[in-house]
Design a protein that fits this description.
The complex is a heterodimer of chains A (158) and B (161).
Chain A (H helix, E strand, L loop, with lengths): L2 H14 L5 H13 L1 H18 L8 H35 L4 H28 L7 H21 L2
Chain B lengths: L1 H8 L2 H17 L10 H29 L26 H15 L2 H12 L4 H8 L3 H18 L1 H4 L1
The chains are: A mainly alpha (158), B mainly alpha (161).
Chain lengths: 158, 161
Protein backbone atom coordinates (compact mmCIF):
# COMPACT_ATOMS: atom_id res chain seq x y z
CA UNK A 1 0.00 0.00 0.00
CA UNK A 2 1.55 3.29 -1.04
CA UNK A 3 2.09 6.28 1.24
CA UNK A 4 -0.51 8.34 -0.57
CA UNK A 5 -3.05 5.56 -0.13
CA UNK A 6 -2.77 5.54 3.63
CA UNK A 7 -2.80 9.34 3.67
CA UNK A 8 -5.77 9.62 1.37
CA UNK A 9 -7.85 6.58 2.28
CA UNK A 10 -9.91 8.40 4.90
CA UNK A 11 -10.34 11.41 2.65
CA UNK A 12 -11.39 9.23 -0.26
CA UNK A 13 -13.99 7.61 1.97
CA UNK A 14 -15.19 11.07 3.01
CA UNK A 15 -15.26 12.10 -0.66
CA UNK A 16 -17.17 8.95 -1.55
CA UNK A 17 -19.75 9.76 1.12
CA UNK A 18 -20.06 13.38 -0.03
CA UNK A 19 -18.69 14.75 3.23
CA UNK A 20 -16.07 17.10 1.83
CA UNK A 21 -16.65 20.75 1.02
CA UNK A 22 -16.08 21.90 -2.56
CA UNK A 23 -12.48 22.90 -2.04
CA UNK A 24 -11.50 19.66 -0.32
CA UNK A 25 -13.40 17.62 -2.90
CA UNK A 26 -11.57 19.41 -5.71
CA UNK A 27 -8.24 18.61 -4.04
CA UNK A 28 -9.14 14.93 -3.84
CA UNK A 29 -10.26 14.92 -7.48
CA UNK A 30 -6.95 16.43 -8.55
CA UNK A 31 -5.13 13.76 -6.60
CA UNK A 32 -7.31 11.00 -8.03
CA UNK A 33 -6.46 12.04 -11.57
CA UNK A 34 -2.77 11.62 -10.80
CA UNK A 35 -2.88 8.55 -8.57
CA UNK A 36 -4.17 5.26 -9.98
CA UNK A 37 -3.91 3.57 -6.56
CA UNK A 38 -6.30 6.05 -4.98
CA UNK A 39 -8.53 6.01 -8.05
CA UNK A 40 -8.78 2.23 -7.69
CA UNK A 41 -9.51 2.72 -3.99
CA UNK A 42 -12.46 4.95 -4.85
CA UNK A 43 -13.74 2.50 -7.45
CA UNK A 44 -13.65 -0.29 -4.87
CA UNK A 45 -15.64 1.81 -2.42
CA UNK A 46 -18.16 2.63 -5.13
CA UNK A 47 -18.48 -1.03 -6.14
CA UNK A 48 -18.93 -2.10 -2.53
CA UNK A 49 -21.62 0.53 -1.94
CA UNK A 50 -23.35 -0.52 -5.13
CA UNK A 51 -23.30 -4.17 -4.03
CA UNK A 52 -24.65 -3.36 -0.59
CA UNK A 53 -27.26 -0.96 -1.95
CA UNK A 54 -28.55 -3.48 -4.46
CA UNK A 55 -29.41 -6.15 -1.90
CA UNK A 56 -33.19 -6.56 -2.08
CA UNK A 57 -34.67 -5.79 1.34
CA UNK A 58 -36.01 -8.75 3.30
CA UNK A 59 -39.80 -8.70 3.41
CA UNK A 60 -42.00 -9.58 6.31
CA UNK A 61 -44.24 -12.51 5.34
CA UNK A 62 -48.02 -12.35 5.75
CA UNK A 63 -47.69 -14.82 8.63
CA UNK A 64 -45.01 -12.66 10.20
CA UNK A 65 -47.18 -9.59 9.76
CA UNK A 66 -50.10 -11.37 11.42
CA UNK A 67 -47.82 -12.33 14.32
CA UNK A 68 -46.69 -8.72 14.61
CA UNK A 69 -50.31 -7.53 14.74
CA UNK A 70 -51.15 -10.09 17.43
CA UNK A 71 -48.13 -9.05 19.47
CA UNK A 72 -49.10 -5.39 19.16
CA UNK A 73 -52.67 -6.20 20.18
CA UNK A 74 -51.28 -7.83 23.33
CA UNK A 75 -49.14 -4.78 24.08
CA UNK A 76 -52.09 -2.45 23.62
CA UNK A 77 -54.31 -4.72 25.73
CA UNK A 78 -51.70 -4.69 28.50
CA UNK A 79 -51.64 -0.92 28.42
CA UNK A 80 -55.45 -0.77 28.46
CA UNK A 81 -55.46 -3.18 31.42
CA UNK A 82 -53.30 -0.80 33.41
CA UNK A 83 -55.66 2.06 32.64
CA UNK A 84 -58.72 -0.04 33.60
CA UNK A 85 -57.00 -1.05 36.84
CA UNK A 86 -56.26 2.58 37.60
CA UNK A 87 -59.93 3.39 37.07
CA UNK A 88 -61.07 0.48 39.26
CA UNK A 89 -58.69 1.44 42.05
CA UNK A 90 -59.94 5.02 41.84
CA UNK A 91 -63.53 3.86 42.21
CA UNK A 92 -62.68 1.59 45.17
CA UNK A 93 -60.85 4.39 46.88
CA UNK A 94 -63.85 6.60 46.39
CA UNK A 95 -66.08 4.11 48.23
CA UNK A 96 -63.73 3.86 51.20
CA UNK A 97 -62.97 7.54 51.47
CA UNK A 98 -66.54 8.69 51.56
CA UNK A 99 -65.74 12.21 52.57
CA UNK A 100 -63.41 12.79 49.71
CA UNK A 101 -65.11 10.48 47.26
CA UNK A 102 -66.50 13.06 44.88
CA UNK A 103 -63.29 14.95 44.45
CA UNK A 104 -61.15 11.83 44.32
CA UNK A 105 -63.30 10.01 41.82
CA UNK A 106 -63.41 13.07 39.66
CA UNK A 107 -59.69 13.57 39.79
CA UNK A 108 -58.92 9.90 39.21
CA UNK A 109 -61.34 9.68 36.38
CA UNK A 110 -59.86 12.77 34.78
CA UNK A 111 -56.42 11.33 35.25
CA UNK A 112 -57.33 7.99 33.72
CA UNK A 113 -59.07 9.69 30.83
CA UNK A 114 -56.10 11.92 30.31
CA UNK A 115 -53.88 8.83 30.21
CA UNK A 116 -56.04 7.01 27.74
CA UNK A 117 -56.52 10.02 25.50
CA UNK A 118 -52.89 11.12 25.69
CA UNK A 119 -51.74 7.82 24.34
CA UNK A 120 -53.28 7.91 20.89
CA UNK A 121 -52.63 11.63 20.61
CA UNK A 122 -48.98 11.08 21.37
CA UNK A 123 -48.80 8.31 18.80
CA UNK A 124 -50.57 10.43 16.24
CA UNK A 125 -48.15 13.24 16.94
CA UNK A 126 -45.29 10.84 16.36
CA UNK A 127 -46.94 9.52 13.25
CA UNK A 128 -47.26 13.04 11.91
CA UNK A 129 -43.66 13.95 12.71
CA UNK A 130 -42.18 13.40 9.30
CA UNK A 131 -38.49 13.70 8.64
CA UNK A 132 -38.35 16.61 6.22
CA UNK A 133 -34.85 15.69 5.15
CA UNK A 134 -35.66 12.06 4.51
CA UNK A 135 -34.30 10.94 1.18
CA UNK A 136 -36.28 8.89 -1.28
CA UNK A 137 -34.44 5.76 -0.11
CA UNK A 138 -35.46 6.42 3.48
CA UNK A 139 -39.05 7.25 2.81
CA UNK A 140 -40.27 3.63 2.69
CA UNK A 141 -39.11 3.00 6.22
CA UNK A 142 -40.65 6.24 7.42
CA UNK A 143 -43.93 5.31 5.79
CA UNK A 144 -43.78 1.83 7.34
CA UNK A 145 -43.00 3.25 10.76
CA UNK A 146 -45.73 5.84 10.57
CA UNK A 147 -48.23 3.31 9.31
CA UNK A 148 -47.59 0.98 12.23
CA UNK A 149 -47.58 3.81 14.74
CA UNK A 150 -50.85 5.12 13.34
CA UNK A 151 -52.29 1.62 13.43
CA UNK A 152 -51.33 1.27 17.10
CA UNK A 153 -53.06 4.57 17.80
CA UNK A 154 -56.33 3.32 16.38
CA UNK A 155 -56.05 0.12 18.39
CA UNK A 156 -55.50 1.95 21.65
CA UNK A 157 -58.38 4.35 21.10
CA UNK A 158 -61.09 3.87 23.75
CA UNK B 1 -37.94 -1.93 9.75
CA UNK B 2 -38.06 -5.67 9.14
CA UNK B 3 -35.42 -5.39 6.42
CA UNK B 4 -33.16 -3.48 8.79
CA UNK B 5 -33.72 -6.02 11.55
CA UNK B 6 -33.00 -8.84 9.13
CA UNK B 7 -29.77 -7.17 8.03
CA UNK B 8 -28.66 -6.93 11.64
CA UNK B 9 -29.62 -10.37 12.91
CA UNK B 10 -29.57 -12.40 9.68
CA UNK B 11 -32.48 -14.63 10.39
CA UNK B 12 -36.18 -14.26 9.85
CA UNK B 13 -37.48 -15.44 13.21
CA UNK B 14 -35.06 -13.22 15.13
CA UNK B 15 -35.82 -10.28 12.85
CA UNK B 16 -39.54 -10.69 13.58
CA UNK B 17 -38.81 -10.76 17.30
CA UNK B 18 -36.69 -7.64 17.01
CA UNK B 19 -39.40 -5.76 15.10
CA UNK B 20 -42.05 -6.82 17.61
CA UNK B 21 -39.93 -5.72 20.52
CA UNK B 22 -39.10 -2.49 18.74
CA UNK B 23 -42.69 -1.43 18.30
CA UNK B 24 -43.68 -2.72 21.72
CA UNK B 25 -40.81 -0.72 23.21
CA UNK B 26 -41.76 2.33 21.17
CA UNK B 27 -45.36 2.04 22.29
CA UNK B 28 -44.42 1.76 25.95
CA UNK B 29 -41.78 4.45 25.76
CA UNK B 30 -43.68 7.00 23.69
CA UNK B 31 -43.24 9.65 26.37
CA UNK B 32 -39.49 9.46 25.89
CA UNK B 33 -39.76 10.33 22.23
CA UNK B 34 -38.06 13.64 21.62
CA UNK B 35 -39.90 15.58 18.98
CA UNK B 36 -36.71 17.05 17.63
CA UNK B 37 -35.74 13.53 16.50
CA UNK B 38 -37.31 11.91 13.48
CA UNK B 39 -39.59 8.91 13.89
CA UNK B 40 -37.16 6.92 11.80
CA UNK B 41 -34.15 7.73 13.98
CA UNK B 42 -36.10 7.03 17.15
CA UNK B 43 -37.44 3.67 15.97
CA UNK B 44 -34.10 2.73 14.44
CA UNK B 45 -32.36 3.38 17.75
CA UNK B 46 -34.84 1.15 19.56
CA UNK B 47 -34.46 -1.51 16.89
CA UNK B 48 -30.64 -1.51 17.06
CA UNK B 49 -30.86 -1.79 20.85
CA UNK B 50 -33.28 -4.70 20.57
CA UNK B 51 -30.97 -6.44 18.09
CA UNK B 52 -28.08 -5.95 20.52
CA UNK B 53 -30.16 -7.30 23.38
CA UNK B 54 -31.11 -10.38 21.38
CA UNK B 55 -27.47 -10.97 20.48
CA UNK B 56 -26.44 -10.68 24.13
CA UNK B 57 -29.21 -13.09 25.20
CA UNK B 58 -28.11 -15.59 22.59
CA UNK B 59 -24.51 -15.21 23.62
CA UNK B 60 -25.40 -15.88 27.26
CA UNK B 61 -27.45 -18.92 26.25
CA UNK B 62 -24.57 -20.23 24.21
CA UNK B 63 -22.22 -19.83 27.16
CA UNK B 64 -24.66 -21.64 29.41
CA UNK B 65 -24.98 -24.38 26.84
CA UNK B 66 -21.18 -24.70 26.69
CA UNK B 67 -21.15 -25.04 30.46
CA UNK B 68 -23.63 -27.85 30.09
CA UNK B 69 -22.83 -29.50 26.77
CA UNK B 70 -25.30 -32.38 27.16
CA UNK B 71 -28.34 -30.33 28.00
CA UNK B 72 -28.01 -27.08 26.12
CA UNK B 73 -30.26 -25.85 23.39
CA UNK B 74 -29.13 -25.84 19.81
CA UNK B 75 -29.96 -22.15 19.41
CA UNK B 76 -27.54 -20.26 17.31
CA UNK B 77 -27.75 -16.57 16.59
CA UNK B 78 -25.90 -17.00 13.34
CA UNK B 79 -29.30 -18.48 12.55
CA UNK B 80 -30.18 -19.26 9.02
CA UNK B 81 -27.27 -17.50 7.45
CA UNK B 82 -24.18 -19.37 6.50
CA UNK B 83 -21.46 -17.22 7.95
CA UNK B 84 -18.69 -19.42 6.60
CA UNK B 85 -15.60 -18.06 4.93
CA UNK B 86 -16.67 -15.22 2.72
CA UNK B 87 -15.74 -15.05 -0.88
CA UNK B 88 -12.21 -14.54 -1.80
CA UNK B 89 -13.33 -16.11 -5.06
CA UNK B 90 -16.74 -15.36 -6.56
CA UNK B 91 -19.18 -18.21 -6.79
CA UNK B 92 -20.22 -19.47 -10.18
CA UNK B 93 -23.80 -18.21 -10.52
CA UNK B 94 -23.12 -14.52 -10.28
CA UNK B 95 -26.13 -12.55 -8.97
CA UNK B 96 -27.57 -14.83 -6.32
CA UNK B 97 -24.20 -16.06 -5.17
CA UNK B 98 -22.83 -12.54 -4.91
CA UNK B 99 -25.68 -11.79 -2.52
CA UNK B 100 -25.00 -14.96 -0.57
CA UNK B 101 -21.32 -14.11 -0.35
CA UNK B 102 -22.17 -10.57 0.68
CA UNK B 103 -24.53 -11.79 3.39
CA UNK B 104 -21.86 -14.18 4.63
CA UNK B 105 -19.27 -11.39 4.66
CA UNK B 106 -21.65 -9.12 6.57
CA UNK B 107 -22.27 -11.85 9.11
CA UNK B 108 -18.58 -12.06 9.89
CA UNK B 109 -18.35 -8.39 10.85
CA UNK B 110 -18.41 -7.40 14.49
CA UNK B 111 -21.81 -6.05 15.61
CA UNK B 112 -20.45 -2.48 15.75
CA UNK B 113 -19.09 -2.67 12.22
CA UNK B 114 -22.14 -4.40 10.87
CA UNK B 115 -24.43 -1.76 12.33
CA UNK B 116 -22.63 1.17 10.69
CA UNK B 117 -22.41 -0.59 7.34
CA UNK B 118 -26.09 -1.51 7.34
CA UNK B 119 -27.21 1.94 8.50
CA UNK B 120 -25.01 3.75 6.01
CA UNK B 121 -25.03 1.56 2.93
CA UNK B 122 -28.41 -0.13 3.13
CA UNK B 123 -30.50 2.35 5.08
CA UNK B 124 -28.76 5.39 3.55
CA UNK B 125 -28.54 7.21 6.87
CA UNK B 126 -26.22 10.19 7.11
CA UNK B 127 -23.23 10.11 9.47
CA UNK B 128 -25.15 12.45 11.77
CA UNK B 129 -28.19 10.17 11.84
CA UNK B 130 -26.01 7.11 12.50
CA UNK B 131 -24.27 8.94 15.35
CA UNK B 132 -27.68 9.83 16.75
CA UNK B 133 -29.00 6.27 16.44
CA UNK B 134 -25.91 4.66 17.97
CA UNK B 135 -25.29 7.46 20.47
CA UNK B 136 -21.65 7.74 19.48
CA UNK B 137 -19.61 10.69 18.19
CA UNK B 138 -19.42 11.24 14.44
CA UNK B 139 -15.69 10.46 14.55
CA UNK B 140 -16.54 7.00 15.86
CA UNK B 141 -19.00 6.49 13.02
CA UNK B 142 -16.29 7.49 10.54
CA UNK B 143 -13.67 5.16 11.97
CA UNK B 144 -16.06 2.20 12.34
CA UNK B 145 -17.32 2.69 8.81
CA UNK B 146 -13.79 2.94 7.48
CA UNK B 147 -12.72 -0.29 9.19
CA UNK B 148 -15.93 -2.11 8.29
CA UNK B 149 -15.52 -1.24 4.63
CA UNK B 150 -11.89 -2.31 4.69
CA UNK B 151 -12.92 -5.68 6.15
CA UNK B 152 -15.67 -6.16 3.60
CA UNK B 153 -13.42 -5.21 0.71
CA UNK B 154 -10.90 -7.74 1.93
CA UNK B 155 -13.53 -10.47 2.19
CA UNK B 156 -15.17 -9.58 -1.10
CA UNK B 157 -11.98 -8.93 -3.04
CA UNK B 158 -13.10 -10.93 -6.01
CA UNK B 159 -16.16 -8.73 -6.48
CA UNK B 160 -14.86 -5.28 -5.72
CA UNK B 161 -11.42 -5.29 -7.30
Amino acid sequence: MSACTSEFEQRIAAYHDGRLDDAAAAQVETHLRACPVCAAELRELQTLSQMLGSVPPARLSQIGLARLHRAMDAVVDDQSGVIKLARWLSAAAAVVLVGASVALTSLSSQSAQAQSSDLPQAWERVAMTGDATASAQQSNNVVDAEWIVADLSRRSAP
Amino acid sequence: MFALAHSLVSNTADAEDVVQETFAGAFRGIERFEERASVKTWLTRILVNQANRLRRDRSTKRMLSLDNPGGGSSDDDAGSIDAGPAASQPSTTAGVDARTDLAAALATLSPDHRQVIVLREMEQLSYEEIADVLKVPIGTVESRLFRARAELRQRLKAYVE
